[in-house]
Design goal:
single chain, 241 residues, alpha/beta, Rossmann fold, 3-stranded antiparallel β-sheet, 29% helix, globular, binds 5-O-phosphono-beta-D-ribofuranosylamine
Length: 241
């Protein structure tokens, strides 16, 4: 058995994505060890989720640091001390300093509630409705110095309904976000997905277009959904194949 993937998670809010990762792990579907949960908001629920699972936490307040770069350096010193294999931004609501991100030795991924490159930034659900889009979704992308602009690894899509509101879209998308994040982390954990200087490698070839999460509305457990390369059949593997 290979060693579990060492995960550091950065979060600012309610921590439902973190909880989804931990639930998949507890169900034996995700070989991870969450070595740190760090936050810029000491009172956020994500830290409670981590503490309840016995995971080490770090809470750093931005106002205790001279500027953004100083905060980010302090944050990533804590991350480095935990020696992660992968860093996951799961509802981490701060823009990171570009130099700090560029110096990062581990791959770092972010879950974003839109079909990137459409709608980077905030208020994605309202913007989808304002634009009259027929489709919405979520993306997992590599974090680079530019906000929500790193290479997209995987996406999940869903139709927009005539009676949708931003709240309804957010509620319908959230379980799909969880499934997508669990599936992508699963691919890292079983070595099928990794970041290389030549680009993202998926099953030994450079990933040219994002993987797609296959979902069906009657899935009893949406986190069991499978990722596939567009045009290919889903393959089994570590709860994420
Ligand atoms: C998710 O919608 C995520 O896509 C966005 O922030 C939200 C975080 O939710 N970046 P949670 O804190 O994981 O519950």
């Amino acid at each position: 058995m290979p060693a579990p993937l060492r995960l550091a998670v950065l979060a600012s809010g309610r921590g439902s994505n973190l909880a989804a990762l931990l639930a998949a792990q507890a169900a034996g579907r995700l070989p991870i060890e969450t070595v740190l949960v760090a936050s810029d908001r000491p009172a956020c629920q994500a830290l409670d989720v981590a503490r309840a699972a016995g995971i080490p936490v770090a809470a750093l307040r931005p106002r205790d640091h001279r500027d953004r770069a100083a905060f980010d350096r302090a944050l990533f010193e804590r991350v480095a001390a935990a020696a992660p294999d992968l860093v996951v931004l799961a509802g981490f609501m701060r823009i990171l300093d570009g130099d700090v991100v560029a110096a990062m030795p581990w791959p770092m991924i972010n879950i974003h509630p839109s079909l990137l490159p459409r709608y980077p930034g905030l208020d994605t659900h309202a913007r989808v409705l304002a634009a009259g889009d027929a489709e919405h979704g979520a993306s997992v992308h590599l974090v680079t110095a530019d906000l929500d602009a790193g290479p997209v690894l995987a996406q999940v899509r869903m139709p927009v309904r005539a009676d949708d509101t931003p709240e309804r879209l957010a509620a319908r998308l959230l379980p799909l976000e969880h499934a997508l994040l669990v599936a992508v982390v699963g691919l890292f954990a079983c070595g099928r997905l990794h970041a290389a200087p030549a680009g993202i490698q998926f099953d030994g070839t450079t990933l040219a277009v994002p993987l797609v999460l296959e979902t069906s509305s009657d899935d009893a457990d949406p986190t069991a959904a499978r990722l596939r390369a567009p045009g290919a059949r889903a393959a089994p593997g570590a709860g994420a194949g």
